[in-house]
Write a structure and sequence with these properties.
alpha+beta; 60s Ribosomal Protein L30, Chain: A; 6-stranded mixed β-sheet; 2 helices; 24% helix; globular
């Protein structure tokens, strides 16, 4: 389902469940829920790649892409993983304009998760 061009009316909610929607689009902006790796047995670099792959898929679903990111919030289970996460992040941007970004350390919902990323992006007009 493409939600591009959504400017007025009710928000478009994508993959909604009882607790959250994976994305909400309203007024030309897509708000993605926190994305985590499906396989929590891998290290920070692989989990970061998996999360960024999921973000790419969600952005495509709503009619956007990483070049239209506005902001990202990155939660790390251990701030010592910052450099390894940031290396993967920079490679993923691959010349795309970097969004506003904040990174912090938190206790994530599952102990095997090393990184969670929340993103906001503009959608196609």
């Amino acid at each position: 389902m493409s939600a591009g061009g959504q400017r007025t009316g009710a928000p478009v909610r994508i993959d909604s469940g009882p607790s959250l929607s994976q994305a909400v689009v309203r007024g030309g902006t897509a708000y993605l829920s926190g994305q985590v790796a499906l396989d929590g047995s891998t290290g920070i670099a692989d989990q970061t790649r998996a999360v960024l792959h999921a973000i790419d898929a969600r952005l495509a679903e709503v009619g956007s892409d990483r070049s239209r990111l506005l902001s990202a919030t990155i939660w790390l289970a251990d701030i010592a993983d910052f450099a390894a996460m940031d290396e993967v992040w920079r490679a993923w941007l691959d010349g795309a304009p970097p969004p506003a970004r904040a990174t912090g350390q938190v206790t994530l919902a599952r102990p095997e998760w090393r990184v969670e990323i929340i993103a906001t992006a503009a959608v196609e007009d």
